[in-house]
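Fold this sequence, please.
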Amino acid sequence: MVDYKLGEAQVEFLKELTEIPAPSGFEDPVLALIKERYGKYAHEVRRDNLGSLVLVKRGKSERPKVLVAGHMDEVGFIVTGITNEGFINFTPLGGWFEQVLLAQRVVIRTKNGPVIGVIASKPPHLLTPEERQKVVQISQMYIDVGATNKEEVEKLGVRIGDPVAPWSPFTRTAFSDRVMAKALDDRVGAFIAFEVLRYLSESGTEHPNTYYAAATVQEEVGLRGAETVGWVVDHDVAIVAEVDIAGDVPGIKPHEAQAKLGKGPTVVVYDRSMIPNQRLKEFVIQVAEEAKIPYQLSAVSGGTDAGRLHLYRGGRPSIVIGVPTRHIHSHVSVISLSDLENAVKLVAELVLRLDEETVRRFTE
């Protein structure tokens, strides 16, 4: 049995990981932090030409090659213009719902350092009755950094093309098991992949394969990092560690989102980017039950890196393990730390069992 505990040191690292502003295409600070923390556990460090990071740990056999991947990028924005009055135009990187944006603080990564601003639009006092009934579009919003003209903004170092991310500090809720943060989608996934690497190394547990822990880039803008990472790893089986939509909030019907906080990680049986290998899915369920790890079955409408990884070369058995998460693609998401701990345990148990014969049976 995998004896993994999510301690205070790991939670503090998750805090550090999520607070870095790193939207799609601007992930380098996160990747550097991961390499610094986990590189010592790897036999080899690889990167693809898009920037995704892969740490390799050799086991008892070269094959199968087991890839566990989580993406580093978060939903954010990119600067597209600066008005003469000193306001900043922007466009989304990834999927945003306009209603969650107004009055939220953001951080712009500039050549001179971070600049804090707030997303704003026409004041409600000046809206007509008809305008009040409509959702304000992103094209009608701007970022206010407190400037009064374009020259002041440019002196701050803000340029067209600079990345913008939510400003949202990691917060413990009143319930010790639950935390709030930005970028949990999908820093928790990469956290899982690399915590499994650390566990295997520090525990001295032998695994019958070669283990690849990957932090992929640009998932939120089209699963791009996953497409190139497959060629770097040449994997035989892929496990994508992700967030999953928690349906335990008002307004969601049970069939729309099955996952609930605190009930264990999810085994995703369907999403719009991949139908998992069915033998692999049953194997995951069996392992969870044998190891007495709580789990939930989930069918979701989103897509993940598995959508690319399962199409590598002639096809590769793939599965998604999710951490139920409330309010994804917003400034503040909520997870249960027990779900995260159990996700690490489940993925580690899978890695310890994925030998060549087992993987071969998935596709024979």
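The chain has two domains: 8-74+182-361, 77-166. The chain has a mean pLDDT of 96.
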